[in-house]
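INTERNAL AUDIT FORM
Audit reference: QA-55
Scope: verify that the stored structure record matches its stored sequence.
Auditor: D.O.
Record contents follow.
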Amino acid sequence: MKSGQRGFTLLEIIIALVVGAILAAIVVQVMGTNLSRSAEPLAWVRQQLSLQEIMESMISDYKYLWMTDDTPLDTFKSRIESNYYGTYSAVTKYVSFDAAGNENSAACSTDCKILKVTIASGGQSLTALFTR
């Protein structure tokens, strides 16, 4: 090189490329993880909306059963347990509440008036109470 001219040496260029490649690899790895997990909230929302759609169908059917069936809660409970409304896992039980408003889930033997329904799918769950 002539005196007075400045530039980069081959060694400086190689070091800059190696450092840049290492930084690029780190950025790609971090961004790749974030991008692959970015769809999870959307999947959760879809699962929740699916459960809400099933619950709305149940509520509509229960209103119809309430007007037309002699034992609407029993008929409704059997429909839920047979997956009549779609694909879900369900827990149904008759409950009552004490004077303080606490749930009493002891087995109801006669005159059961409140049915607690919990449906679940894909890690999401939804609970509703149905009464006579």
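Auditor finding: record pair retrieved intact. Residues 6 and 12 are 13 Å apart (CA to CA).
Action required: none
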